[in-house]
């Protein structure tokens, strides 16, 4: 070990001397190394500024919404500068969970009952110290919907809560319950033999994810609105949470308590998403891992599904499509996987959205390929705005040299919700 350490120190010293010699500019040196470094840096900077850093494409269905965003949410028209050393789609997607900070948040948990006897867990950040909205009854409320395997502990959710706190808003999102699978809304259904004197909760038929089924989301929205009917009420959905939110808005039209909504990295066409994720590299980096997460979540309650579903067959699935074909579509009563994917795709319902919605997507997102983004449909609905960046990956949108504290997605979220709370009335008068 000592010999190895000596060799490493000698190698390091020799390398340092070599580099110093290469970049030295003096009467006795040519400066070739420094010239190469400067030349490469200049070429890279030119490439970055001309091909990577670009303004997003803003697609709206009406001039009034476009002018509103330019006036009150200017970030959607500003140049987005992806992290200079990590702008590629997969890099942004993989790096974001590890590099972004996780602000500390103390939640208040609530369990609400559903009509069929189940319960949904919500984590509240009440923001009782809000200086802008000291009256809790009128304090703006943001409902946050995380992605497929996300919870209230996800960094992007924590960032949204932190930004909402800066604005004086309260937030609520799916809660974390032990031994219950994660989905768009964390649901628990209790068996009739639950021992109420015990701290152990017996789960009977836990719901799995299904972004076409909006029943639980409708329950949550009505519940939150009933608690604070005088408070501005908005929602934000990320990835699959955004798909669920858009499907809900498409079904409800203008008949929703929500004042506005925002979505981030939504998969618009489930068929196209699945096809993209099944490409070899994407399958290796993302698809297989997410499939194993889904299998692990339902395997905890395996005994509850064996009468309805061939669980051995489900556990052999190697992709999300195979999992959905063998489990999700069967669980929710679809005749075929194609029927489920058709019903789950929010592009079909975008034309029916009846409140202002901003949708941020990156055209290099492997989870949501650019050719499936419904640009023409968005142009036909005055309530819809698409913000399309050239880079950003899936829930990435990293920017700055060391993108730990904030992302482009964070800035879009903050400016948009603030714009809708403080200036949303201007849209109705335009």
From TrEMBL:
<keyword id="KW-0378">Hydrolase</keyword>
<dbReference type="InterPro" id="IPR029058">
    <property type="entry name" value="AB_hydrolase_fold"/>
</dbReference>
<keyword id="KW-0472">Membrane</keyword>
<comment type="similarity">
    <text>Belongs to the AB hydrolase superfamily. AB hydrolase 4 family.</text>
</comment>
<dbReference type="GO" id="GO:0016020">
    <property type="term" value="C:membrane"/>
</dbReference>
<feature type="active site" description="Charge relay system">
    <location>
        <position position="365"/>
    </location>
</feature>
<keyword id="KW-0443">Lipid metabolism</keyword>
<feature type="active site" description="Charge relay system">
    <location>
        <position position="394"/>
    </location>
</feature>
<dbReference type="InterPro" id="IPR012020">
    <property type="entry name" value="ABHD4"/>
</dbReference>
<keyword id="KW-1208">Phospholipid metabolism</keyword>
<keyword id="KW-1133">Transmembrane helix</keyword>
<feature type="active site" description="Charge relay system">
    <location>
        <position position="239"/>
    </location>
</feature>
<protein>
    <recommendedName>
        <fullName>Phospholipase ABHD3</fullName>
        <ecNumber>3.1.1.32</ecNumber>
        <ecNumber>3.1.1.4</ecNumber>
    </recommendedName>
</protein>
<comment type="function">
    <text>Phospholipase that may play a role in phospholipids remodeling. May selectively cleave myristate (C14)-containing phosphatidylcholines through its predominant phospholipase 1 activity, cleaving preferentially acyl groups in sn1 position. In parallel, may have a minor phospholipase 2 activity acting on acyl groups in position sn2. In addition to (C14)-containing phosphatidylcholines, may also act on other medium-chain-containing and oxidatively truncated phospholipids.</text>
</comment>
<keyword id="KW-0735">Signal-anchor</keyword>
<keyword id="KW-0812">Transmembrane</keyword>
<keyword id="KW-0719">Serine esterase</keyword>
<dbReference type="GO" id="GO:0047372">
    <property type="term" value="F:monoacylglycerol lipase activity"/>
</dbReference>
<dbReference type="GO" id="GO:0046470">
    <property type="term" value="P:phosphatidylcholine metabolic process"/>
</dbReference>
<feature type="transmembrane region" description="Helical">
    <location>
        <begin position="21"/>
        <end position="45"/>
    </location>
</feature>
<dbReference type="InterPro" id="IPR000952">
    <property type="entry name" value="AB_hydrolase_4_CS"/>
</dbReference>
<dbReference type="GO" id="GO:0008970">
    <property type="term" value="F:phospholipase A1 activity"/>
</dbReference>
<dbReference type="InterPro" id="IPR050960">
    <property type="entry name" value="AB_hydrolase_4_sf"/>
</dbReference>
<dbReference type="GO" id="GO:0004623">
    <property type="term" value="F:phospholipase A2 activity"/>
</dbReference>
<dbReference type="GO" id="GO:0051793">
    <property type="term" value="P:medium-chain fatty acid catabolic process"/>
</dbReference>
<dbReference type="GO" id="GO:0008126">
    <property type="term" value="F:acetylesterase activity"/>
</dbReference>
<dbReference type="GO" id="GO:0051792">
    <property type="term" value="P:medium-chain fatty acid biosynthetic process"/>
</dbReference>
